[in-house]
Amino acid sequence: MKWNCNGYLDHKFVSRDFLPRTRRLKSIVFPRLLSVFLAGLMALPLTACGGGNEPVKNLLTTETEEVKVVNLFGPMEKTRPGGENAARNAFDKTVFMAEERLGVRVDYITYTAEDYKDKTFDDVSLDRARNDMDDIYLLNPDVIQKLAAEGKLEDLSGLECAKNLREVVRTANVVDGRLVGIPQEVVVYGLFINEDIFRECGLKMPNTPEEFLECCRVLKENGYETPVGANRWWLETFVFAQAYADLYNGGDTEAEVAALNSGEKKYSDYMRPGFEFLQELIDKEYIDAEKAYRSEAIDGEGPDFLAQKTPIVMAYWGAANADTAYGKPDFNMTVIGFPSSRGQMPVVSMTGLCVGINAEHKEDALETLEMVLSDEALQVYAEVNKVISPSKNVETDCIPALKPLNDRIEEGVYVLGTNAGMKLEQWGNVCLVARNLLGGATVDECMAKLDRLQEESAGK
């Protein structure tokens, strides 16, 4: 699925040309558009083109046979008006499979906020799910976490497809022993590096925070004024890699998460080294804090990276495949994990398909998900989008630039930027605290903010 600048499902952009299978698209944003479209159909001549003797055929026929309908709520998912949306095409292919084999019709209900005055996609998602308005929901991780805590999401662990999930998917989407969401792809964040510049400067790919800082020092000495291109959304990836390298790759993950949820341990103790690392990047001007504070992802740092003025940026897996991002650089590029005590560390975040606990068509919805999330359907999805599948049985070839990141995932080495089992929502909260650092807050002030957020989450 398409992701916005915050790594979440896109809900910013509006496109009139995106009306796939109009017969079953219900748009919350454009009810007027659909009304005009239907009115146009009604205005068409009701006689055949060949003459007036043919019997009249009603173009808006009514289905007399009973059809099983499943309502699916999600974002419009269009990031470039007029552009092809591969993610949507892949999703449609899996939905077609379910419709044809199960005899269901999946009706899309979509929402796209037109400007900042509108409710966000997340706000609308929460409202619809809390009021049992749909059957299947495509949700951001923080929304999944809230709805799961409220008991509004069905347990999906009984589905056959759930048996094939990678452990990373289970860890991210299990709440109190219940699997509440399953994605169609695992979204992985990494460092995009200009290999040619690194080679010219005699640098090797960094593994640890210390090695990364040394690379930045050498790059700056070689005339690269800002070695790392940053934006206001993704700096928390550095923090997660350093904070949770041991938690997810060496410790007792369940016990440590339980200690964090109870307040026995503090998130700030885990995250302080990562924030101190970011502060050092700012102090040594390895990143431009002022520019990053106001920059949108890729749009802010992307031009300098592609122009080879900035050797390093951070982005998600799909950006390496997208022509609108970093899919066609004029240099050799590689994508690695973030520096950590355990080496290059991918940071994983994911959305999820969920079923409402009180869904009107719950059984049909669960059958539909069983098909859409089957290995067969996920293979189709992965091949179209060239992504990491949530199923351990599905493999696709990745471009050479992504191989270092993919190798780590295949080894089971990663940290989670989203974990529904943690009471304190991770991705959005740490992003905002990191932005405070960009704005001039001290590391101690940022840690105090995390402590307050933890106390608030523990009381819920």
Description of the molecule:
With 460 residues, the chain is of the alpha/beta class. It is built from 18 helices and 13 strands. The strands form three sheets. Strands 7, 8, 9, 10, 11 and 13 form a six-stranded mixed β-sheet that branches. It has a five-stranded mixed β-sheet with strand order 1-3-2-4-12, sandwiched between helices. Strand 5 and strand 6 form a beta hairpin. Mean pLDDT is 84; it is low at 1-23, 27-64 and 77-86.
Q: Roughly how many Å is the radius of gyration?
A: 24 Å
Number of helical stretches of at least 4 residues: 18
Mean pLDDT: 84
Beginning-to-end CA distance, first to last residue: 31 Å
User: What is the number of beta strands?
Assistant: 13
Sequence stretches where pLDDT stays below 50 over 5 or more residues: 1-23, 27-64, 77-86
